[in-house]
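In practice, a research group might receive sequence data for several interacting partners and want a quick structural hypothesis before committing to experiments. The following worked case mirrors that situation: the sequences arrive first, and a predicted assembly follows.
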Amino acid sequence: MTPVHFAFSSAFMLSLSGLAFYRTHLLSAFLCLEGMMLSLFIAISLWALQLDTTGFLTSPVLLLAFSACEASAGLALLVATARTHGTDRLQNLNLFQC
Amino acid sequence: MKLFYACSASTCVVLILLLLLYPVILSFIRSKSPKFEIYYHSVIALGLSFYISMMLLLLSLILPINMTVTILPWTNTDVFDMDISLQFDLYSVMFMPVALYVTWQILEFAYTYMHADPQINRFFKYLLIFMTAMIIFVTANNLLQLFIGWEIMGIMSFLLIGWWHGRADANIAALQAMIYNRVGDIGLIYAMAWFAIIHNSWDIQHIFQLPQNEKINLPLIALIIAATGKSAQFSLHPWLPSAMEGPTPVSALLHSSTMVVAGIFLLVRMNPLMEFNPTILTICLCLGALTTFFSALCALTQNDIKKIVAFSTSSQLGLMMVAIGLNQPDLAFLHICTHAFFKALLFLCSGSFIHSLNGEQDIRKMGGMLYLMPITSSCFTLSILSLMGVPFMTGFFSKDTILEAMSASYVNIWAITLTLMATSFTAVYSLRLIFFVLMGRPRTKPVSTMNEHDPYAIKPLVRLAVASIITGCLLVHYMVPPKMPVITMPPILKLAALIVSLIGFVIALGLAFMANKQLKPKPPSGPHHFSNMLGFFPTIIHRFIPKIILTMAQKIASKMIDQTWLKKTGPKAASNINKPLATTTSNVQRGMIKPYITLFLLTLTIAGILVYFTIF
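A structural hypothesis for the assembly, expressed as tokens:
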């Protein structure tokens, strides 16, 4: 495993565990998601570069675009949560009641 | 001649029984008529029976024979016969007139005392049935007859103590008497069963003549237990002072002069069995000495006039037991007879005071009775002098002789010391009674309703007072004890009883005058509490032991079995084990986002690990 592989996969695992175990704020959960997306972006870019397949070089950009959409949707949710619940703490979010 | 004596004697007893029962039967026939008063009939019946019993006594004076008369066979089986048989010896012939005389006076007095009671007819009926039972008991030559008399007395005692059954105290006292007497009954039944099995006879004369071995100790101890229950000896004594909850005539008749001596009388009757048995005699002696001392000690600080007199009765019963233990049943019997007169008189006088003071029993609220009720007071003083054993009063002849026989014998020195101390205590509490009730100034309520105009209240007192002066002398002249006590003794021993009484009297007088001044703000001390609380005996026996039993029951049955084994280790354990699991599971599934994410990571990790191991 090359250092680059180790770097993006550990970044992905760290963001994933941050999402799972850091329990306070919704904002930090989104940040972790963003981190995951970025590490995925690096992984896909590396994939295209290493295999020298130019046809695949669009997919990281597509992923980045989807991640920007996801971030905007997340921020909108964050705002909506702050408006309805008054806070962005994760413990207020219940699947049984929105 | 013997036949004549037997015929006339049994006729006399049957006549007495019929006479005593006739007012009872009459009351059943005429119970509807409102004017019927059993009182006149019963007093006449008792008077007549007294004269008939005197005839019997005179007859036995002319012909001094011990005789048993079998009237008719009661039932017979192949191996065991029971006859109705009567015994005419010194004890039964002499005890009957004494008991009948005392009962006669008490019934006459009871009319004044109980005249306001709506159930007075029933009261007299109970007393008459009681007296019948007593006659059956003393004349019995047969353990079964004896037992019947004994049991009827117990039942009547229960009914009469609980006469005012509206009061909780009276009910408790009646129950106590019943339960303590049942303990004694167990002893008597045991002895009867033993005699029936081993000696195959309930006839007292047969039992005496059969050969004896050391196994006889068992039924004799059972008989002592019977006497302990009935005669309120130490350890079964608390019912006697409690029995004072009954009306005063009942206390006078049952619990001082006649019924309570039944236990002693039983031992007197059975004396030939224990004559040469030092173990049994020593038990009697120690029991009697302890009783007489303890009761006298308790009497010292009581404030209820009837309680004091009750404890003095208990003390005198202990003295009788001492005489049994000295192997002098004649002296014990003599003391039974003399004691009946002066103790009945003492009770009737107390009853008279109580009645005049509208039911006030506390001696601290009496005082000055000497001026208000002179005749009753004189009789009271006479009876107390007799109780103290002042020379040539009735009590002197028996009490002094017992103490003399005691100090001249070589028995347990502690028993002698205890009895002598009890004798001096007698003087102390007697003086206390006189000092508080008769002397000084009245401490009663201002309106005095007392008078001595009722002849029915005064006559019995005077008759009993005369009896307490002269009967001792008469009885002693009649009873020549077959077992002569020691004649020669130093003067200090001869006068021991008198000396200790005098010492007690002088000390008590000194104390009484000192006690007028209150020196400390809190006068009563430990010994006072001990005496005043009856030696803490009822507290320990009636509270402490049941408490231990109940606590043990609670610990074993309730706490250990019910709460620990059947609850804690059974259903509770199952629920306690399952509850954390259920709580955890449901806590996870509360719908929060975070747990799901965590679970997701967990699943992912496990899946990753599995895939890793599967591939490589």
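Before designing any experiment, note the following. DSSP finds 26 helices and two strands in chain B. The first strand of chain B starts at residue 67 and ends at 76.
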